[in-house]
Amino acid sequence: MKYTSPLLLERDGAIATLRFNRPDALNAIDVPLARAFLAAVQTIAADDTVRAVVLRGNGRGFMAGGDLATLRADPVQGATDILTPLNAALPLLAQMNAPVIAQVHGVAAGAGLSLMLMADYVLAAEGTKFNLAYIHLGTSCDVGASWALPRLVGTRKALEIALLSEPFLADEALRLGLVNRVVPAAELDAATDALARRLAAGPTLAYGAMKRLMHASLDRTLPEQLAAEAGAFVGCAGTQDFRAGVEAFYARASARFEGR
Predict the structure, then answer these.
(1) Residue 66, φ and ψ in degrees, nearest 5
(2) Cβ contacts of residue 177 below 8 Å, gap of 6+?
């Protein structure tokens, strides 16, 4: 099978899937893939009909990290050319209203693990192998790992994962809180589809407000966070989804949210 585009952007109703498509290289990020990722993220970030996003990889694994052939040929320029579009894309994913799901299988290493950590929810197949791995190449981490990892597991454990860069499997990732759910590999697609459809039917603006509150909470004082919460709640109270939720409560029915 011939692969042409390094990233496929697919739509199924309100669900957008970004599918990494360098399977022969375990989806390692080279410059074309990094640029295609930014372009796809910009497209979905500007589209308010997108209400859930799925990140997944074609082939045997989610992502093996940065493309070593690119980095070997010109380490400094290669790293710059890969990281510049990635670093422009990640804040857009974090700030968009649509929840971002990472569907992980096979391997998530280096930048692949870093990218996974930036998702809002992670589903992993049993047997998936994880490794931050940067130390084995003599470099520090990138793609948001130093931001996300301490927030998920604490600074002490984050340093252990980073400094030792030892491999671990999906069950350990679940125990550490790096993934939300581990399922048999044969059930991964169905579980991801069910979760994406559930989130895509939810109150999208409220999801976005919740994401931004959580991301900013560790950098604010309690009074600052309370003020941010109040502002977000009042903003959500003016939406159609909030009115639908309140009316459904009184009607003892399930709310039908439209993401507005």
Answers:
(1) -75, 155
(2) 152, 153
The one-character DSSP state at 22 is: -
87 within 8 A of 136, measured Cβ to Cβ: no
Amino acid at residue number 87? N
Q: Quick check: is 130 in a domain?
A: yes
Instruction: Give the DSSP H/E element, type plus range, for residue 169.
Output: strand 168-169
- CB 92, CB 45: distance < 8 Å: yes
Q: Are 66 and 113 in contact (CB under 8 A)?
A: no
Same domain membership, residue 138 and residue 154: yes
Over residues 151-169, the pLDDT tens digits come to: 999 999 999 999 999 999 9
Whether residue 142 sits in one domain with residue 14: yes
Residue-number span of the structural domain to which 125 is assigned = 7-200
Which residues, other chains included, contact 223 with Cβ-Cβ below 8 Å and sequence gap of 6+? none
pTM above 0.90, yes or no: yes
Asked whether residue 258 is domain-assigned, the answer is: no
Assigned domain for 2 exists? no
pLDDT at 1: 39
